[in-house]
Amino acid sequence: MAATSTADALGPGSRVALLVPGSTAYVDLVLALLADGIFPVPLDPALTGAERRRILAPIAPDLVVDRAEQVEDLLAGRTDRTRAVPRGRPIHCTSGTTGTPKGVFSGLLPDDQAAALVAEERELWGFCADDVNLVLSPLHHSAPLRFATGTLLAGGRLVVPGKFDPARVTAAIRDERPTTMFCVPTHLQRLLAHWDDVGVPDLTSFRLVAHAGAPCPPAIKERLVELFPSGSTWEFYGSTEGQFTACRSEDWQRRPGTVGRARPGRTLSVDADGHIWCAVPDHARFTYLGAPEQTAAAWRDTPDGPAFTVGDVGRIDDDGYLFLDGRRTDLIISGGVNVYPLEVENALREVPGVRDVAVLGAPDPDWGQRVVAAVVGDVEPETLRAHAREVLAPAKRPKDYLPVAELPLTPTGKVRRDRLADLLLGGAVDPAP
């Protein structure tokens, strides 16, 4: 990986890998660099040397920042740029749930598109100068960084309590009176469990609580709506590449399972194979760095303009609400029947006691693949089997149930699909009769 430039040599188009913990100064630096047309590459500082080299090879950064003092040095000459309009998006890397992450690159945007990029987020989420954004997730991930930058650009402030801890977050809610936060379902589960023990803090300061990144168990979603102010809770569906939908929890209650309608400025469609395509404005275009074939496969022309897919499969109802069925790359073919893991996982999450679940296909001499459910939680396999018989067609019902202490997850709570097969090697399987 190339990283030979000095800070003084950076200019429009340069790339700066950020491998330091998140902080308000971190977000200031991201904004200051983008205002100068320099692309930050936010990465997990806990990556091993081998992981860094593999991920950064196609990105070829001009500078690697891995010490806190470098953040201060880079900011020193850019303090007047921390609230200027960004000229592009950070180069975030895909989550790597199925392999090596890829860098997502927007390129330098002309002034009108740069302004549209900021305006789109502000109009959707209502960022304003009175906002206090509570940061729960690592800032090297796209969603928390997007909420943080949107807040600062609107004149608000950040609260960054550090590594997620329910007690620390609860204290921050009490002391800082945040108005917004982004979280993943794992955060909500841990917070609600903590509040069951110590009591629910005053949540009336919140106007926006957005969650994404993984399916949310219905019981957690209902509790979220119950505890937080009316109309404040949202789910959105998107990816590192771009955003598809936004959905108020009240809409989800009327249409259980939906992830909402297309965000403003976007149009959704589903092709004959069920792939979801999202037509986007010019400022939301991207390429995968060093991967032209994958870039070409991700895009196609539609009557609504250029549209991209990340391989997810779903359906859109007559009112435009999207329902996810899973990823085509996760597809299990059992006895000639297509089974999407997400559909089975969502069904099993309805069972009390299930904290998390992942469904995978295991080789089978008779069926080609058999459906296996790895389950985290205090629930008997027979209870799961009984529920599956009620809500799933026979081909979709897991043939085996594998109790596990935890699932392999990314730092944002997404299941590492590329590591699920490892669970079969060490776990005791409870076969269905």
Tags for this model:
Rossmann fold, 2 domains, globular, 433 residues, alpha/beta, GMP Synthetase, Chain A, domain 3, 13 helices
CATH-defined topology of the largest domain: Rossmann fold
CATH H level, superfamily name of the largest domain: ANL, N-terminal domain
How would you describe the shape?
Answer: globular
Q: How many helices in DSSP terms?
A: 13
Please list the strands of the largest sheet in the order they lie side by side: 7-6-8-9-10-11-12-19-18
Beta fraction: 25-35%
The largest sheet, given as strand count, sense and whether it forms a barrel, is: 9 strands, mixed
**CATH class call of the largest domain:** Alpha Beta
Counting helices, strands and paired strands, the structural category is alpha/beta
Amino-to-carboxy terminus distance: 53 Å
CATH architecture of the largest domain: 3-Layer(aba) Sandwich
Stretches with pLDDT under 50, minimum 5 residues: none
Q: Helix coverage percent of residues?
A: 25-40%
Can you give the mean pLDDT?
91
Please tell me the total number of domains. 2
In quaternary terms, these chains amount to single chain
How many beta-strand elements? 25
Radius of gyration: 22 Å
